[in-house]
Amino acid sequence: MGLFERYLSVWVGLSILVGVIAGNFMPDAFAVVAGLEFFHVNLVVALLIWVMIFPMMVQVDFAAIKDVGKKPKGIILTLVLNWLVKPFSMALLGWLFFKVFFASMVDPQSANEYIAGMILLGVAPCTAMVFVWSQLTKGDANYTLVQVSVNDIIMAFAFAPITALLLGVSDISVPWETLIISVVLYVLIPLAAGFAFRRYLLKQQGEAQLNRFLTGIKPFSVIGLLGTVVLLFGFQAQTIIEQPQVIGLIAIPLLIQTYGIFALAYWLAKKLKLPHNIAAPACMISTSNFFELAVAVAISMFGLHSGAALATVVGVLVEVPVMLSLVWFANKTRHWF
pTM for this structure? Predict the structure, then answer.
């Protein structure tokens, strides 16, 4: 692994620190960036997210879907947890904590926005970072590719309806136009662009050139991630300084969700007698979130300074160290499988 991937949690931590400091000392600069919007889409954030996810989308090989029936158990495990369990468990935890346990600590409007941000995280299964988690657990790379490809196709059609359903059940108004624009901008277009560029490289220059391109562009993905983190924490800097306890309140249900889903997935994988190189990445895909999409949609739907955006930013804060701890656990328990 490269220097960026190996010390990813360090770079994310430093980016968070830079964002919070810069946001408090240069609020006007961040206000200018926040004003660069078009149809509720912040152009700077959109650019960074595209830089972050496009290299990952080029890796997605829809031709691999023809192999989906060869080892169906891992695929079924991932799809059931990603689309029938995780979105609804996240919505339930959000409601339980912010409408019951923490009801006296936050105002109703903020509570609704925090729940909305959590729902967006729960409905967005991991697409990009899962290749890193799979590599760290010595997962079957081709099988991971199949799983991600299937998930991406489902996400293109299921993300908006499930999000709208759960937001509606939580009494949160659903701006359908913004939701659909976000799905097109951050899922459909990157997927189509990645697919087209992958086919072009393979047709013109072959698989060796594709691999060289992916290796060369990989740092840009991490740079996009770190730039996004700096901006997001800069936008939320004053809230974080003034109300640090809110970060903890949001992190609690997110941690319960993440470790709970992983425990369920790992137990089911063992019951299904999956080999470790399929079980580990399947559980990582089931557990982790496409937080880039969640962040972008939260900003588009609720605004840069909203509680929903803050909740997805906390998701970024929690995601990397928690997933690295699960990678460590999966590697330590390889002999279980």
Answer: 0.84
